[in-house]
Amino acid sequence: MSRVFAYCRVSTSDQNTDNQILEIEAAGFNIDARRVVTETVSGSTPAMERKEFQRLVERIEWGDVLVVTKLDRLGRNAMDVRSTVERLGKEEVRVHCLALGGADLTSPAGKMTMAVISAVAEFERDLLIERTRAGLDRAKFQGKKLGRPSLLTDDQRQQVRIKRDEGVSLAALAQEFSVSRSAIHRIVRD
User: Fold this and answer.
1) Phi, then psi, of 7 in degrees rounded to 5
2) Which of 13, 58, 88, 178 has the most CB atoms in a 10 Å sphere around its CB?
3) Measuring CA to CA, how many Å separate 13 from each of 16, 17, 39, 112, 184?
4) Is 11 a catalytic residue?
5) Dist. CA 57–CA 91, nearest whole Å
6) Residue 42 near residue 11, CB atoms below 8 Å
7) Residue 101 half-sphere exposure, CB side, CA atoms within 13 Å?
8) Cβ-Cβ contacts under 8 Å for 24 (sequence gap 6 or more)
9) What is the DSSP string of 58-106?
10) Which DSSP symbol is given to 17?
11) Angle at 20 (CA atoms; ends 18, 25), nearest 5 degrees
């Protein structure tokens, strides 16, 4: 007989998992309290690097069921969520996500849903990169200076170049102008 586990995660210590547990119970899952795994960790931390999730994976067995309220409880990165679901699927663990109508993500329909979600996430990432590049190109075309503002004035940068030509070391210049050696090196190089 398969056992049912719940994984409930929040990102900060001022949040709690009570609503997630209530939502899982309201969906008709009767889960023994010993099988409710809660954790406070950022969703950007890969699932398999989370302490409580690792313990859950060690406890869960062939044929068991894992319930989450939303995919973002497993992770924010579509690739991490997908690899986590695939790993559990290889062990014949069914993963149900309530936000997706309780779909078993390891079933054929669930796999298709995961593929669509991954494709949409990749598309959104590509659009973001494209918009960022277009914005940078537009800013360059308009003559805007990109990057971090310089720590030194034009006059100070000129003094650095002159002193470096006179043989003053990078370390001495960095100390004199209260910047890093790499900042001095960039000034000299440019």
Assistant:
1) -115, 120
2) 88
3) 7, 10, 10, 35, 43
4) yes
5) 10
6) yes
7) 4
8) 6, 8, 31, 67, 69, 98
9) HH--TT-EEEESSGGGT-SSHHHHHHHHHHHHHTT-EEEEGGGTTEETT
10) S
11) 95
- Report the sign of the C-alpha dihedral through residues 187, 129, 85, 50, in that order: positive
CA–CA separation, 27 and 132 (whole Å): 41
- Contact criterion met (CB below 8 Å) for 177 and 152: yes
pLDDT tens, the chain, 190 aa long = 789 999 999 999 889 999 999 999 999 998 999 999 999 999 889 999 999 999 999 999 999 999 999 988 988 777 888 889 999 999 999 999 999 888 899 999 888 888 887 788 778 878 989 999 999 999 999 998 888 788 899 899 999 999 999 999 999 999 999 999 999 998 998 8
* The two three-digit tokens of residue 82, written as one number: 């997908």
Separation CA 12–CA 160 (nearest Å): 46
Q: Which residues of 86-102 are buried (b: 16+ CB within 10 A; e: fewer)?
A: eebbeeebbbbbbebee
Question: Among 11, 83, 118, 150, which one carries the catalytic annotation?
Answer: 11
State both tokens at 147.
């990057």
